[in-house]
Amino acid sequence: MENSSAAPLDAITASTYGGLEDNFTQGSLESDDKVSVWDQWNNFSTIAALLQEAMRSSSELPLSTSVPFWDSPLNHGLSVFVGVALCVTMLGLGCTVEISQIGDHVRRPIGVLIALISQFVLMPLVAFLLALIFSLDEVAAIAVLLCGCCPGGNLSNIMSLLVNGDMNLSIIMTTSSTLLALLLMPLCLWFYSRPWINTTLVQFLPLGAVALMLCSTLLPIGLGVIIRYRYSRIADILLKVSLWSLLVTLVILFILTGAMLGPQLLATIPPAVYIVALIMPLIGYGLGYGLATLFGLSPKGRRTVSLETGCQNVQLCTALLKLAFPPHLIGSMYMFPLLYALFQASEAGIYVLVYKLYRRDVLHKTESLDEDTNISFKKLKEEEPPEMSYGAVESGEPSSVNTELGQSPH
């Protein structure tokens, strides 16, 4: 930049003072080349105008050489915030696990099997097909694939509670899919990224960093399990904090990225990415309901699997995009999981609203506001009677449906 700015100044000096310099070096001005006061004033006026233009250009220079967003303090602050939010989320997830029930889940692994199929077969395939159908570039495709390969999130637990779902099934699906992600998420990401293998981002795909970061989530999960085992009341508080942190995290991230960076960042995201973020949760909800139907689950089990399939762990996806991938390559695509979270929460809210209206107007059942909004571990576990656990596949037990209907007056 120094050479480019010095050249115009040299040209100004040469053109303005060139003639005068030759005369002064000769000791005096020649009579036939006299420079009047008016000519000198014109020369100095020209110099002043050119200097003002040079100063104006230099004042605009920092705009083009400003620090890139990925090197800015705001981006580093967002990375720290996302990492802390992820730890809180995983800590709350661990607080939903009881050691005494691990044996039951191992003996009846239907919930684990459904989580495996829904989160690591259906959703990655949906993300892959959408990326191909909408002809996304490699950066957008990797962001979509990463979101599709993520395990279930805590939002599904809240929504399953609001639709009177099978809470044992919801908890085991969220927990098991998170643990299965340690191995299956990098594998799915590697497999489905093959169409973009010739691009720089895919060639240097940080699968090792993704796997390492997934392993690091075991620490807060394990800590949450220990807290649940030793200090049940504290675990209830941490669970509520983690559930509310989901909403707070999304709101803060939208405010920081939207208000501070303005619409320019969102404008760099292709319209096709917005469409994918809109329809991908809907497809997940539909496929999850169909999968639960194939397994012969009850209506409450179908609603649960539906929500578990469509609701992804957007905190984990955002953290991986910001911390594991090169920021100068990802650019604004770290916003995709936030867009997905916005649409998945809105569509899940509509899902809950439709169910509530159906329950009230068709089934003629009412429930108090306290029962709907009192989200705690005790509420989650007491929602499902022992004899109606998720392991009971009801296609082979016709009487189980009647049992559920017979218990409805309670």
From TrEMBL:
GO terms under cellular component: plasma membrane
GO biological process, one term: bile acid and bile salt transport
Localization annotation: Cell membrane
Membrane-topology descriptor: Multi-pass membrane protein
InterPro entries: BilAc:Na_symport/Acr3, Bilac:Na_transpt, Na+/solute_symporter_sf
Keyword tags: Cell membrane, Glycoprotein, Ion transport, Membrane, Sodium, Sodium transport, Symport, Transmembrane, Transmembrane helix, Transport
Molecular function terms, GO-annotated: bile acid:sodium symporter activity
Matches recorded under Pfam families: SBF
Keyword match Chaperone: no
Transmembrane segments: 78-99, 111-134, 169-192, 204-229, 241-261, 273-297
Chain spans, region Disordered: 376-410
Keyword GTP-binding among record annotations: no
Main location: membrane
Biased composition (Polar residues): 397-410
Role: Transporter for bile acids.
PANTHER family tied to this protein: SODIUM-BILE ACID COTRANSPORTER, SODIUM_BILE ACID COTRANSPORTER 4
Record-stated family: Belongs to the bile acid:sodium symporter (BASS) (TC 2.A.28) family.
The name this protein goes by in its record: Sodium/bile acid cotransporter 4
Species whose genome carries this gene: Xenopus tropicalis
The organism's taxonomic lineage, starting at the top: Eukaryota, Metazoa, Chordata, Craniata, Vertebrata
